[in-house]
């Protein structure tokens, strides 16, 4: 083909009338899978996600490329639909995606605010100090930090849990590189596994719960996730048992200062548990979105924060009159400001929340174009649900589990409750196969730099994969009635 012919082909491809490239689907949407807009959207998402995966090396926040890609993808879609006189179809699709994002974002924002409030009240610092002061041996500490990561992550997010346990490991055994490596791997696997059997443990489980998926066995409700407890435990326990053999049973030096929880810490923990109960009750009994219950729970913290602010003098053993006489300010004493709930909201992980926005809009756009319907047919019809869901977990070791799970929920394949729980399990624990594809793994590579590394984790990947396979087999065995 001559150069002129190639130019003519390119001109026809990009400038030919749009109706020749876009066919209307049965639901009124245009099938853009073979259109240049569809191909361009795939390239944009691929480039954006390549930058996300390279965040550790580029130090470019992961939210930036996906937000840009989301805006460009929907702009291209809108141009095509406007050319067909279907402006409001694309607008309605975007609004639907925004509603899904808003519900999840506000839910996570409340959870992050509570976690930040507990951190400011020294809840996690006191736990870390207590563990260090106990003077446990390295092997015992290996098991304790892994077990705590497994049982704390269903309530707190896996990132906070992993950072807390890693701080204990570094404080006690920081000079022992081999111990730090296997302890960090155990923490990452445990935190990811623990997050799968609770709707509050991971964004993917929260997404499945809020979607109110109906199956022949009923709705995948709050209680359904606890069927994953044993498979999740196997996912962590099997690799941990093998890795523990390499941990020396030596007694490290226990040091560090004791950390005391600040006034109101226990009451904030109780309010967080009450907030979880409120969210579940609103969803199960009042049939309202869980986010309404979570925001109601945020009001609990706001009122308690007001109480702490007005009684800040008690934290310093003074009467209100003595405090005002000394400071002239009823909200601050020197460098110790009173509790302010809005500071805790401001400290939320906004990069993660905005990354989530970009993912929802990008994947929503690709689904609106028609690619997810194609993928759903190949995976869930040609391969079968079980093979597809196991593959989803392996894919989540390379691609973040948020877009993977959102893609599955957008496809909405017709599956049993057992299959929905299987994909929840695999998407949650699949990220443990590599250190770079879970928030916990990436964070610990920074916290234990030089000791917990990508290649160090990779050496144990076959053992982690054994736990992955065992957890899948365990789920299909003990929950066989749900398939």
Automatic annotation (TrEMBL):
<feature type="transmembrane region" description="Helical">
    <location>
        <begin position="460"/>
        <end position="478"/>
    </location>
</feature>
<feature type="signal peptide">
    <location>
        <begin position="1"/>
        <end position="22"/>
    </location>
</feature>
<keyword id="KW-0915">Sodium</keyword>
<keyword id="KW-0050">Antiport</keyword>
<feature type="transmembrane region" description="Helical">
    <location>
        <begin position="220"/>
        <end position="247"/>
    </location>
</feature>
<keyword id="KW-0812">Transmembrane</keyword>
<dbReference type="GO" id="GO:0006814">
    <property type="term" value="P:sodium ion transport"/>
</dbReference>
<dbReference type="GO" id="GO:0015297">
    <property type="term" value="F:antiporter activity"/>
</dbReference>
<feature type="transmembrane region" description="Helical">
    <location>
        <begin position="291"/>
        <end position="308"/>
    </location>
</feature>
<feature type="transmembrane region" description="Helical">
    <location>
        <begin position="34"/>
        <end position="54"/>
    </location>
</feature>
<feature type="domain" description="Citrate transporter-like">
    <location>
        <begin position="51"/>
        <end position="428"/>
    </location>
</feature>
<keyword id="KW-0732">Signal</keyword>
<dbReference type="Pfam" id="PF03600">
    <property type="entry name" value="CitMHS"/>
</dbReference>
<feature type="transmembrane region" description="Helical">
    <location>
        <begin position="420"/>
        <end position="440"/>
    </location>
</feature>
<feature type="transmembrane region" description="Helical">
    <location>
        <begin position="268"/>
        <end position="285"/>
    </location>
</feature>
<keyword id="KW-0739">Sodium transport</keyword>
<protein>
    <submittedName>
        <fullName>Na+/H+ antiporter, NhaD family</fullName>
    </submittedName>
</protein>
<keyword id="KW-1133">Transmembrane helix</keyword>
<feature type="transmembrane region" description="Helical">
    <location>
        <begin position="66"/>
        <end position="86"/>
    </location>
</feature>
<dbReference type="InterPro" id="IPR045016">
    <property type="entry name" value="NhaD-like"/>
</dbReference>
<keyword id="KW-0813">Transport</keyword>
<feature type="transmembrane region" description="Helical">
    <location>
        <begin position="179"/>
        <end position="200"/>
    </location>
</feature>
<keyword id="KW-0472">Membrane</keyword>
<feature type="transmembrane region" description="Helical">
    <location>
        <begin position="386"/>
        <end position="408"/>
    </location>
</feature>
<dbReference type="InterPro" id="IPR004680">
    <property type="entry name" value="Cit_transptr-like_dom"/>
</dbReference>
<keyword id="KW-0406">Ion transport</keyword>
<comment type="similarity">
    <text>Belongs to the NhaD Na(+)/H(+) (TC 2.A.62) antiporter family.</text>
</comment>
<feature type="transmembrane region" description="Helical">
    <location>
        <begin position="354"/>
        <end position="374"/>
    </location>
</feature>
<dbReference type="GO" id="GO:0016020">
    <property type="term" value="C:membrane"/>
</dbReference>
<feature type="transmembrane region" description="Helical">
    <location>
        <begin position="98"/>
        <end position="115"/>
    </location>
</feature>
